[in-house]
What we know:
The protein has helices at residues 22-38, 50-53, 58-81, 83-115, 133-141, 152-173, 177-190, 201-206, 211-225, 235-254, 259-262, 270-286, 296-303, 305-323, 330-349. It is mostly helical. It starts with 21 loop residues before the first helix and ends in a 15-residue tail after the last helix.
Amino acid sequence: MENSPQSPLPEPATSRDSRRDERIDFLRGLALIVITLDHIYGNWLTMVMPISLGLSDMAEVFVFLSGIVGGWSFARRSTRDGPWSATLHFWGRAIQLYLVYVVAGFLVLLLIRWTGTSQQLTLHRDTAILLPLDELLLRVAMLRQHVGHLSILPLYCCCLSCVPLWMWLRRRTQSVVPPTLLALALYLTAQWSVTSLPLPALVEAAIYYRPVPWMSLFLLGMVCGQLTPQRFAHPAWWGIALVIQATMLCWKLMDAPALALLLGKPNLGLGRMLHFLSLALLVSRLLPRQSHWYLSFIRGCGRRSLRTYLAGALAAVLISSLFTRGETSSLVQILGNGLAIAICLIVGNCSGVPASSESSSDVA
């Protein structure tokens, strides 16, 4: 059924069904829990996590699914209140998330200082967490201080700020082709260092994710959220996805030198992008939209992703402080990982947001 000319935005394909797509909430909640465990310093469990495979991991899952949710949320709000109101809401939300990042990042740094887990930050680069508190807070606010895996929040602020522009392009063209081409163009040009944003050296060192390629993945998520599942039902898509997965796995097993250039995480290397998109296609076709396997307490973390994400960041520091105080037994490892998971589940499910809420996410 075609959208009427009066409709502010094309109606997302999946929003015509009143039932939520439980896969989105479940996979986002699962991704947040795995991200928390991945950032516990000295955690033996990371050896069996996706991050150890060196292909794509849960960061791609979260950004891509957040793009789907962001597109749905903007379309619903625009239909209800108008495009301008939706635009102001998303820009306001981006500002709010930046302030959350500054406060939460500062608190995480203080917790790292007090618990002596500075190793968690030096995994990627040197830090200056022993500076005076006012200077440390200023460094966080100016994006000059790395704050662990909270560094994805500035990227998310950029993504939310651009949602109105991308959805305006979708509305004007009545097609997903221009947004798709825009995403691909941004991604490909971002792979060359000459196209890097002219950021100061300290800012470049503090931001782990290069914004442009990761924003492209967010935009691709928005595009996929506007399409009907039947678009990818042809067996040829399955064949292409399987070939990509097999090829990437063989390259990984052979430890091909060129593969390292394709799997860079900060710039979302081409190998990571292809591996994730093909895996996402297979998962979307294999997992049913609703299932009793999608545990409600994990879906709760996906719905309330911001508070779960922040709780996971604090939990990672606390458990890291436990794991870095000498030899860690298997029992301590099990209890520590269990505690981190419990913190995420409790915070994600003890909330004022009702379980039946139509809100797609407390981030969007």
